[in-house]
Amino acid sequence: MAAANAPITMKEALTLTSIGINPQFITFTNVTMESDKYICVRETSPQNSVVIIDMSMPMQPLRRPITADSALMNPNTRILALKGECFHHF
């Protein structure tokens, strides 16, 4: 089958390392992509942060100092869902 007749075409849109993501964080555990709009990357050391890549402007990643077990962007709006332990101090 010729590539022109393939039902799916693939094109590299972004290399995460080109925008400063350390390769050790490019794993299924640390990266989420719910749609073609956003990519989230959890960085865990030396400091905990979440990097949000808006694919409409991928060269301007948004890095926030957040500790989370997982992070996920809403596929339609700029809402970030975080999962982690809650610590209550009494």
From TrEMBL:
Coiled coil ranges: none
InterPro entries according to UniProt: Clathrin_H-chain_N, Clathrin_H-chain_propeller_rpt
Alphabetical list of SUPFAM superfamilies matching this protein: Clathrin heavy-chain terminal domain
Pfam families for the chain: Clathrin_propel (PF01394)
Gene3D superfamilies (UniProt xref): Clathrin heavy-chain terminal domain (2.130.10.110)
PANTHER family: CLATHRIN HEAVY CHAIN 1-RELATED, CLATHRIN HEAVY CHAIN RELATED
Protein name (database record): Clathrin heavy chain
